[in-house]
Amino acid sequence: MDLGLSGSRVIVTGASRGIGLATARVFAEEGADLAICARSPEPLEEAAAGLREAGGVVHTRALDVADTAALDAFVDSAAQYLGGIDIVVSNVSAGSSRVPDQWERNFATDLLPFVRLAERAHPHLVASERSGAIILVSTTSALHTTRPAGAAAYGAVKAALNHHAASLARAWAGEGIRVNTVSPGPVDFPGSGWDRRRETDLEYYETIRKRIPCGRLGRPEEVARAIAFLASPVSAFTTGQNLVVDGGFLDRV
């Protein structure tokens, strides 16, 4: 299916690995131009080199999204480099580590950057001739309380983000901006938390895997395709939705 993304100008945060990199790759293969960021310069430039092979423009900036000034500067430079912004994918997360400062970390890395990213990109999305789109990458941990969610910051902060994204969808629909959420279930790839968990606690890993009716954990590219679909003109009448990509992991109607 042609998603109609050729020539789109797309921001993807946290695009040096995992779901972020897979998402950037899908957009590049669809003919979009990209602005990507990540914390570490070397993996970011390595990712960009691979994306450029698809033939599109790739603008990079190494930054910590918790640094508001740096995030603002990235959005501004992306708009200047690409000639505007049509799509924003907010992917960075502090993850689900239950460290003592988990609440502060997830608030600073997950919640506030999405709020700021949306606000900073807003005028560019309003000006988009393609109809602007924002995709929040959330998690199934925001939608249930059993393992691997539990009483921890990750799911609670993402649940707050789900609410904000749905509220933005209603507030900005009249301006031609669609806001949707994609919620992956457990996703495994080299170097991921689940990859490490498989090595250190195989019993726990298998407990989660067996709860997934499809019989395995997800892959980054499977989530990335869902993100590109929701961001594309093919989904022009879809906003305020939360698309769960989890192999049937959640038990709900």
Structure, described:
The structure is a single chain. The protein has one domain: NAD(P)-binding Rossmann-like Domain (Rossmann fold, 3-Layer(aba) Sandwich). With 253 residues, the chain is an alpha/beta fold. α2 (41-52) links the parallel β2 and β3. It contains eight helices and seven strands. It has a seven-stranded parallel sheet with strand order 3-2-1-4-5-6-7, sandwiched between helices.
Describe the structure using short key phrases:
single chain, 253 residues, alpha/beta, Rossmann fold, seven-stranded parallel sheet, 8 helices, 7 strands, 14% strand
Provide a concise account of the structure shown:
45% of the residues lie in helices and 14% in strands. The chain has 253 residues and is an alpha/beta fold. The protein has one domain: 3-Layer(aba) Sandwich (Rossmann fold).
